[in-house]
Design goal:
By secondary structure, the chain is an alpha+beta fold. About 35% of the residues lie in helices and about 15% in strands. The N terminus is likely disordered.
C-alpha cells in the first residue's frame, strides 16, 4: 500500500509540474493510467472536459489550498482554484483565445457559481493540440 501511495504521489508531482504548483495532498490529477484523488468539482471538471474535448491528455490540479482566506473563496465549497492542461485535437486550427473560450463554455455552470452556490473562482488553462504537446515535450 505504501508503494502505491508513493507511486501516486510521484505521478501527481509529474503531472502537475507544468503549473509550478507546490506538492500538497490536495493536488488532483488525471491522466490515463494514473491514480487520482477525487472531489465533486474535480470530477465535474474532468467529466465535462473529457466529454466535450475527447482529450489525449487531461491534467486537472486543484490549487485551492494556496488561496485559503482569499476573498474569492468566502462562502464557497473550498474547491475554487483550478489549473487544467488539455491536449485535444479539437483545438486544431483555433487560436488560444478560442481554445480558452471552448473550455470556459464547457464549464460555464461551474464558472457562474454552479455547485454549492460557489463554483470556480479561478481557472488556469493550458490548451494544446497533440502536435503542439509533442513539440514542447
Amino acid at each position: 500500500m505504501a508503494v502505491l501511495r508513493l507511486m501516486c504521489l510521484l505521478a501527481i508531482m509529474n503531472a502537475s509540474s507544468a503549473f509550478s504548483a507546490s506538492v500538497a495532498p490536495s493536488l488532483r490529477t488525471s491522466r490515463p493510467g494514473l491514480c487520482s484523488v477525487s472531489s465533486s468539482m474535480y470530477n465535474t471538471i474532468h467529466e465535462k472536459l473529457t466529454e466535450g474535448l475527447e482529450p489525449v491528455k487531461l491534467v486537472v490540479v486543484d490549487n485551492s489550498h494556496q488561496h485559503a482566506g482569499h476573498a474569492g473563496v468566502n462562502g464557497r465549497s473550498g474547491e475554487t482554484h483550478f489549473a487544467v492542461e488539455v491536449v485535444s485535437n479539437k483545438f486544431e486550427g483555433l487560436r488560444a483565445v478560442k481554445r480558452h473560450q471552448l473550455v470556459y463554455g464547457l464549464l460555464k455552470e461551474e464558472m457562474e457559481g454552479g455547485r454549492d452556490a460557489g463554483g470556480i473562482h479561478a481557472l488556469e488553462i493550458k490548451a494544446k493540440t497533440e502536435d503542439e504537446d509533442i513539440a514542447t515535450a
